[in-house]
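Q: Give me a protein?
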Amino acid sequence: MQLSDFHYMLPKERIARYPTKRRDQSRLLRLVRSTGQISHHRFSDLPDLLTSQDLIVLNNTKVMPARLIGRCLRGICDQSRITKTFACWIEVLLVKPLENNVWVLLVKPGRKVRVGDRLQFGKGQLEALVLEREEKGLRIVRFEYQGDFDSIVDQLGHVPLPPYIHRRDERQDRTRYQTIYASKRGSIAAPTAGLHFTPGVFDHLREKSVACCEVTLHVGLGTFRPVVNDPIEDHRMEAESFEITTEAAQMISKARSTGQRIVSVGTTVTRVLESAWRETEQDPQLRGETDLFISPGFSFGCIGALLTNFHLPCSTLLMLVCAFAGRDLVFQAYHQAIGENYRFYSYGDCMLIE
């Protein structure tokens, strides 16, 4: 398939720049694959759309305030003495840790940050030495600090809102760009399909005897790197780390063996499940990395329903949704959602595909 097959026009006013006042008052479009039927609901209606034969799987990753703004300092040799001089202001995104305080960063403007430069954040509470230059604006650095790294990042960092929101992060984003069940720190973006859940929704699910379990996938650049190849099948995802507890694996394996429907909350959960159970019926890979790219023609072996937000044109996320429900049916639903004034993207509304 060609990249142009996944393009659609979205009015700018349909992009949600802020979350709804109440999480569970987001709108929910229900799409039934077997009939093409579309219906419109509120997210608070979700428990009534499911049954006790469903197993909901959530991604419990936690978003870091991974966006840091600082200065690039460069060593200059002057009469056999090395001095630090101010080179430029920079913005970095903490992509993933390697080992011993060594991290991969996405740097902007990347062309101005060289190997050997020092990056300084805050009033020097956090510094980093640039060790290696990678392609696509990536740098490998070693951080230097006194105290607890996570606490320093929490103090200095900003919520890494997607660029299409077109605003600076605000205090409410610390909680609203985070699921209420987030517990495993490590993502640079929220698993947005889970942003709509509230304690009340979980209470209602328990009343309906709908079971839930959690897996972890730390959202990284792989989810958001644009597809630039034609045909799209040539695209290669960057790996993202995942983990499944033994208890969750047992629940999911039992659901698969008994015919219980697995409801995947988001594209990240889908990629975890379809990766972990791809080569086996019962004994999944419990931890590792996945670079699975799901596009039309993919054979799903695990999930039976998908809860997901509305995604950007030509994105790997939209391609995954089209693989699950069929491109034509998904685009019919998207066009109806646009006509019905649904809110799109990370802080927007969602759809349940059955």
Observations:
- The radius of gyration is 22 Å.
- The first strand starts at residue 27 and ends at 31.
- The chain has a mean pLDDT of 94.
- The longest helix spans residues 246-258.
